[in-house]
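Trying the structure run again after the queue cleared.
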Amino acid sequence: MPEVDSQKRHDFVASVEREYGGMLRRFLAARLRFAAADTADLFQEIFLRLLRIKDPGSIRNPQAYLYTVASHVLHQHAAGKAASPESWDPIEQLPQLESQVHPDPAVEVDWQQRIAHLAEALEKLSPRACATLVMYRCEGMTLEEIGQRLGVSRPMARKYLTRALTFCDQYFQESGGL
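Done. Tokens:
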């Protein structure tokens, strides 16, 4: 009998992946932005959790269930990163941007210079202001989410963001732009 249950679970997961897998990848990618490796890992974790369901026939709306599981996995992922906010370095995000290849060498050189200029600016910010700016602009996080990750209030997260934006604006105006 367990083999039949196992086959039912595999069939259920395969059908959910076929029908909603593309949407789920876009959902995760939009929330994780430049963390492509995280997207793939979380996608796999979601489907591993679906395989653990004892009775997939009891799920009335597979899409809603899938996104509920995905939300929980994303929340746990964010909580894991929040456990050590000081160890998270936004500058480490830059190599992922730098790895994008442009067909025109002139565009590639310009792109590399802009990234180096951005890295200079980010290094001059306080760690929390830099992290706030990257989380807000690159990861699309809200001020509430940023505050939770950094362990500060929403108003404090807003202050960090304001400081970072003001600094970057002045930095790029003084140095000739991004």
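The helical segments are 2-32, 36-51, 62-82, 94-98, 105-124, 127-137, 143-150, 154-174. Worth checking whether this holds up in the mutant runs.
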